[in-house]
Structures are given as structure tokens and as C-alpha cells.
Amino acid sequence: MVDIPSLISMLLIFCARVTDVSLGTFRILQLVRGRRMAAALIGFFEVMLYMVVLGHILGGGRVLRPLELIAYCLGYATGNYVGSYLEDRLMKGYTLVEAMAPCDEHSLEVIKKLREGGFGTTVIQGEGKTGPRYVIKIICNRKDIPEINRILDNIAFVSVFDVKSCFGGYFRMKRK
């Protein structure tokens, strides 16, 4: 038979673990979306909860002092941030930028600027809520997204997708 304090302890451990794993899942989603600071902050609290519960479960062992716990949590949070930063900077990744723009002369000028900037740009005509739209598709390196966004100059609704692999077609060459 389980006594009441043990039952309460198990219930608290269960709830803490559900919260810890939920935070971990949410943290991963933030990392995938490139929200490093949010992921680092969530990771800080995720690992703090984990360490407190682990200390409770193991009991009898040396309990981390508050500053040690904070140092451990900050290391974990910073690791999330740095790992995401390194992945973003070191991994060569392709991205599909898809922009829905009005069918007008200004959009055609923007498409021309994209192509003059060296970006392979495919244009498809589609139909939006308010009429015809250009669907502008650009596969590029991730690092080119800010420049493409600058050229698009808020004329379009833009979606960005990770591309697992691609071959053929036209890719912008590095400028020397």
C-alpha cells in the first residue's frame, strides 16, 4: 500500500515530467522556426525543472546550490542558442522562397531585379482572393533570404520552406 506523501510525490513527479517534456517539444519547435532566444529561454526552465525533479527522485545525494543550478541551466540554454546559430551558419542549406505578388508592372520590375541579382526565379500565374497573382519561386541559400526580402520590398506575401535537396536549375554563384 502506498502512503499519501508517496502518492503526492509521485503525482508531482508525473506532472513535472509532463511539463518538462512539453517544454522540450515546444523548445524544439522554436529551434526549427529559428527562434533562438525563445528556445534558449524555454530550455533554461526545462532543464531547471528536470534537475529539481531529478534531485528529488535521487534524494540523499548532494543537492545543487541555487547558483550551481542556474549555471547548469544557463549552460543548457546557451548550448541551444549556440547550436542553432552554428547550424544556421555552417550548414549549407537551400530554401524555397515563395512570394505571392500582385500581377502588375511593379511586381514585374521586382522579378527583373531578382533575376539581375543572380537569383533563379520562376514565375507562375495564380488566382488569389482579390484576383490574379504572380507566384514567384526562388530556391536559394538560406543566407540569401535577407537580400531577397530586401528586393521584394514588401510587395508580396512571402513563405519560406526548407528544401531537403535539389539539383539542376540555376543557382546564384558567389560574387568575388
TrEMBL record:
InterPro entries: DUF2179, DUF5698, UPF0316
Major site of localization recorded for this protein: membrane
Domain DUF5698: 25-83
Record's subcellular location: Cell membrane
A Pfam family of this chain: DUF2179
Domain DUF2179: 119-168
Topological type in the membrane: Multi-pass membrane protein
Keywords on record: Cell membrane, Membrane, Transmembrane, Transmembrane helix
Protein name as annotated: Uncharacterized protein YebE, UPF0316 family
Transmembrane segments: 6-26, 38-57, 69-86
One GO CC term, this protein: plasma membrane
Listed PANTHER family: UPF0316 PROTEIN YEBE
